[in-house]
UniProtKB/TrEMBL annotation:
Any single Pfam family the record assigns to this protein: MiaE
Gene3D superfamilies in the cross-refs: 1.20.1260.10
One annotated GO biological process: tRNA modification
The protein, known as: tRNA-(Ms[2]io[6]A)-hydroxylase
Amino acid sequence: MSGDFLQPVRDFLGVATTDAWVQAAVADVPTLLQDHANCEKKAASTAMNMLFRYNDREQLQTELTQLAREELLHYEQVRVLMAKRGISYKPLSASRYANGLRQHVRTYEPAHLVDLMIIGAFVEARSCERFAAVAAHLDDELKRFYTFLLRSEARHFTHYLGLAERYSDEPIGERVAFFREVEAALIDQPDTEMRFHSGVPIPQVAA
């Protein structure tokens, strides 16, 4: 996939998705779609939680309301694709990605809000980058769907980053650099299962 609007996303991330992750994702489309659905639902929930927590921040209210609406629409669209393919919805364990980022969030304001916005930017940027990485290797229907999602995820990334800059008392470059290293390590480290935001899955060997 190509496109000038993707370059800022790639520049923002510390590492690129590996071919090994793409191969693992393409080999298990049902899990890819199901975890993608979970990610969209969690993204909507995260935005909604911040709408309630920071209901005095007008710009945040405006941008995250739209973002939450789009994430729920994407969740619905993934569920439709799953139903068409006979993929039943079942519980999946979460990847360590989100908790690995959130454990570094500062506890005082506005630093807490700023860190959440920066993490949101990385989550959306990684989603966008992975949509682009995997799309060309999927069937035509899924290729169209993931290509369609690219611009909205890139837009979500810029919304979160812009909100971090807006509400920070100081330049955010140092915190962005910190979370870039954390996020890159989470993506580079091996995982036992394939998830949308996992590292490369390494199958466990039975004892």
